[in-house]
Amino acid sequence: MLEVKYDEKGLIPAIIQDIASGEVLMMAYMNEEALRKTIETGYTHFYSRSRQKLWKKGETSGHVQEVKEVLIDCDKDTLLIKVIQHGPGACHTGHRSCFFRNLEGREVSKKVFSEEEVYGSRDNQ
């Protein structure tokens, strides 16, 4: 396996792309353990900078990402992970993609699931 260049915090950005449509679903960070678990299990795992812990995408929602291919850029400091997105969406807001707003703040795509039904009320968290 090629050497991966992690940043000073031990993280590497990972762009997640739908393998069939080419749509970019999300971007998250991986540390060495998250990348290893992703490769070992065939499902995306990330490192949460805010919670300071490893997490499997879809562990709460069931909207897991089945890994089909992992690519690395020319500088070896960014990953592109092509997946089959199981479930209606990748974004915790209820959208298929995390990239659902333009720079003016207008939504350019509709929600595909209710985040309240999937994750519960934010008041309960």
What's the short story on this structure?
The chain is of the alpha+beta class. The protein has helices at residues 32-41, 115-119; strands at 12-18, 24-30, 45-48, 53-56, 65-72, 79-85.
Order of helices and strands: EEHEEEEH
Count of DSSP-assigned helices: 2
Which structural class do you get from the secondary structure elements? alpha+beta
Strand count, sense and closure of the main sheet? 4 strands, mixed
N/C terminus separation: 40 Å
Overall mean pLDDT stands at: 94
Low-confidence stretches: none
Write up what this structure looks like.
The structure is a single chain. With 125 residues, this protein is α+β, with helices and mostly antiparallel strands. Helix content is 12%, strand content 30%. It has 2 helices and 6 strands; from the N terminus they run E-E-H-E-E-E-E-H. It has helices at residues 32-41, 115-119; strands at 12-18, 24-30, 45-48, 53-56, 65-72, 79-85. The strands form 2 sheets. Strands 2-1-6-5 form a 4-stranded mixed β-sheet, with helices on one face. Strands 3-4 form a two-stranded antiparallel ribbon. The termini are far apart.
What are the SSEs and their pairings?
Layout: E1 12-18, E2 24-30, H1 32-41, E3 45-48, E4 53-56, E5 65-72, E6 79-85, H2 115-119
Parallel strand pairs: 1-6
Antiparallel strand pairs: 1-2, 3-4, 5-6
Keywords:
single chain; 125 residues; alpha+beta; four-stranded mixed sheet; two-stranded antiparallel ribbon; 2 helices; globular
